[in-house]
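Supplementary Note 3. Input sequence used for the single-chain structure prediction.
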Amino acid sequence: MEKILSPLTQQPTVVKVEDFSVAQTISQYEEIGVDVKRFFENLNTVQLYKCTKTNYRFYHPFSIIGDADFYKDLSINRKSYYSTRWEHNKILSTLNPKEKVLEIGSGFGAFLSLLKSKSIQAEGLELNPEAIKKCQLEGLQIHDMLIDEFTVNHKDSHDVVCFFQVLEHITNVHDFLQSALVALKPNGKLIIGVPNNNPYLFVNDKYHTLNLPPHHAGLWNEKSLKALEKVFSVKLETVYYEPLGRSYTAFLTAYIKNSSFIYSKMLIAVNKIAPKVLKRILCKFINGRNIVVVFRKIKNG
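The predicted structure, written as discrete structure tokens, is reproduced below.
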């Protein structure tokens, strides 16, 4: 019997959380025009496990995670996927021109372009040939390589290492994060932006299409992100949540759909009578769909 290890601690301290239907997962992707059948051959279910030491949850088997063709299909069907995001502007406001920044997974250069506009020295890592070409045409410094390759000649080289909407796609998260820290100067900032799963995207939206494999390999939240302090030589400094108001309509639709019968009827009724009041209440007590954390690399760590 296969021994399943936590991708974060690399230890067998894991428990199964629940099963996901392959048929329903495939159906969800079909609704957005993406065929994912090839990732689930001979499978009826996908398992979600939790690392008991860190609360990090991950899908299994790892073979179901997307490839280059999948992301090509996704970019065609989801034009806004590589656009400027809330977290880009949030973090941009905290940086200064004296800091040297490395972005892992730069896509088509949305964040690199913002950094360039503020005269912040930055470079990125990206594997998508079309994205690399666009970055080069815009005069952005981009490298076609993985982070472990980059660090061979760039140890302790950057004041900031960041990645947005990347970590949730990685299966071997331990080695990925360790390599990112190699590129970071002692006392430098590691900045991570991921979807906020509480416990799933939009609270109980278990089958939210792009939160499933092959798109996502793992599910992160504040608790599992904070737990990185237990695994790596880092200290958490700041946690930012995207305001719920930015995705409120999608949230409310999912919240009603995935709530109990009585609670969903109550939400529908209140939304019909006093939609502004309901929005104000929900946005006050529920965090938005993305979370960004800032760690400081401990000296000599």
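The radius of gyration is 20 Å. Residues 237 and 295 are 5 Å apart (CA to CA).
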